[in-house]
Sequence to fold (236 residues):
Amino acid sequence: MKQLYLEIFSEFSGVKGFFSTKYGACKGSPYYHEAVFEKQGLAGMQRICPEQVHKNHIQVIREKGDGPVTLPGTDGMITNVPGVLLTTVHADCLPVWFFDPEKKAIGLVHAGWRGTAAGIAPKAARLMMENYGSKAGDIYAYIGPGISKCCFETGPEVYEEFRTAWDFTSGMAKKQGEKYYIDLKGINQRQLKDAGLWPDKIGVSGHCTCCEPELFCSYRREGGTYLRMGAGLCLL
Ligand SMILES: [Zn+2]
Fold:
């Protein structure tokens, strides 16, 4: 039996989160995979699908409507409305999930290197604090699966983008000959710590989408792919 998805936040009740494997992937965007939704008990939820333009706009979802909703120019969403299924699609870029069990609020963002440079993950946490009164110390976050430092080789321009904003002495980037490697997971983790989240409430997936072909598709490894793995999060 092929594994369709990994569960995210399975230790909590009242919330369902997932990240699909390549077996639960779909072609392009938005993410509609009925088998995954059905197995998770999410088939009847309202689907929210951001366009994903590698920026840092986050939409606040204030009510549950009927049909699926597409959000232009958007890379993340927060909500406190049960039955609203936040989704994103991925083929190496990081998903970051958020859950505040006290205020019953969630968030989901798409963080590639541009979104990470634009601070989309800590922005989601801040918006949860502003909109729902979440305390930074109450918010749980989970980063990845996605491309890890082992495989995220970049040109000098990406390295420079981060170098100007980040002190890389903690190992979040390395230069090997003419090659540069960036630890996007580590940078997101530190951004969330800097936003006030407790370190032990920031989970980081050990899965690298690029070097685990048995479980994930990868834009980088495959030199482009039509398949997109889906991230989802929903309050029940
Ligand atoms: Zn890797």
Observations:
- The mean pLDDT is 94.
- The first helix runs from residue 34 to 39.
- Helices lie at 34-39, 113-117, 120-132, 156-163, 184-194, 219-222.
- The two ends are 27 Å apart (CA to CA).
